[in-house]
Amino acid sequence: MRLLISNDDGIRSPLLHALVAALAAAGHELFVVAPLHEQSWTGASKCRHRPVASARTDHGLGAPTWTVDGTPADCVNIALAHLLPGGAAALDGVVTGINLGLNTTLGFIAASGTIAAAWEGALHGLPAMACSQDLSFEEWRALTGGRSLAELPAARATIEASAAHAARLAAELLPATGPGRFVVHNLNFPRPCTAGSEVVRTVPARVIVPGLFSPAADDGTHRFVFSDVIDRSPPGLVTDKAAVAAGRISHGILDYTRL
Predict the structure, then answer these.
(1) In degrees, to the nearest 5, what angle opens at C-alpha 240 toward C-alphas 234 and 203?
(2) What are phi and psi for residue 258, nearest 5 degrees?
(3) What domains are defined for the chain?
(4) pLDDT at 171
(5) pLDDT tens string 208-243
(6) What distance in Å separates the CA atoms of residue 116 and residue 40, rounded to the nearest whole number?
(7) Which of 18, 50, 179, 185 has its CA 20 to 30 A from that of 149?
């Protein structure tokens, strides 16, 4: 397949590089258009009030690569309109990630730039898949701080296994979805993830997310902080949150025609 790859953690994310390597090894023709800088929690926002620059670059991905100094949604929109030969009509799908951290539950799916980049592909009529990886806080801090996967052997084994699953599932899910469906496949990989990790169909956990900002400081400003969620999922639901906690790969289908 000919696939557009993007993310929200930026062009230097080692998890983006792992995903590209796995998809290339599976024989797909890839085009990478990723944010110049980390753009987590930007959702589907677009840079309406300033110019956005794109640039052809080389980050050792072995595929035509561009950076965009905007949001993940900007990346996919600009890629399909202006950067990729043939635009959306010449592609078979959009794959985004692998995100540094999970994108599970109703409280976080809508905020995810990685999912929004996949959704931007769906808005152009393409089947789309978003991929995210559970990490420990220490692994997340190390990777966002610039450490390589080679320095984190346990994380590397999990991420390479997740990337291999992503490549396999892309080959299954994208052709089966087909064009014009307005569907995003949301994959969340557990920690650890192995070649034998089971894939289970899930729905987003129904959570309440209070207090994402700190109280006002002396200057009247609030700071973003992480908060514990309150899970209000009814008994019997197979949720994305529960599946990953049980060591399974969560496969959620975000069907935007049913909203």
Answers:
(1) 60
(2) -105, 5
(3) 2-199+240-258 (3.40.1210.10)
(4) 98
(5) 999 899 999 999 999 999 878 999 999 999 999 999
(6) 10
(7) 185
pLDDT beneath 70: ranges in the chain: none
Residue type, 229: V
Q: Are 47 and 70 in contact (CB under 8 A)?
A: yes
Q: What helix, strand, coil percent values describe the chain, rounded to 5?
A: 35, 25, 40
- CB 185, CB 255: distance < 8 Å: no
From residue 69, how far is each of 20, 34, 39, 64 by CA, in Å? 20, 9, 10, 17
Distances (CA, A) of 102 to 35, 51, 98, 202, 220: 19, 31, 10, 14, 31
Q: Which of 21, 52, 23 is nearest to 36 (CA)?
A: 52
pLDDT, one tens digit per residue, over 112-135 is: 999 999 999 999 999 999 999 999
Q: Is the pTM of this model over 0.85?
A: yes
Q: What is the pLDDT of residue 4?
A: 98
CA distances for 129 relative to 27, 70, 182, angstroms? 17, 21, 11
Torsion of Cα atoms, 143 then 148 then 151 then 156, to 10°: 80
- Give CA–CA dist 85/57, Å, rounded: 16
Q: Which of 123, 110, 146, 183 is nearest to 10 (CA)?
A: 146
Instruction: Say if residue 45 is exposed, middle or buried (CB neighbours under 10 Å; 0-12, 13-18, 19+).
Output: middle
Distances 85 to 68, 81, 156, 193 between C-alpha atoms, Å: 17, 9, 33, 36
The pLDDT, as a whole number, for residue 221 is 98
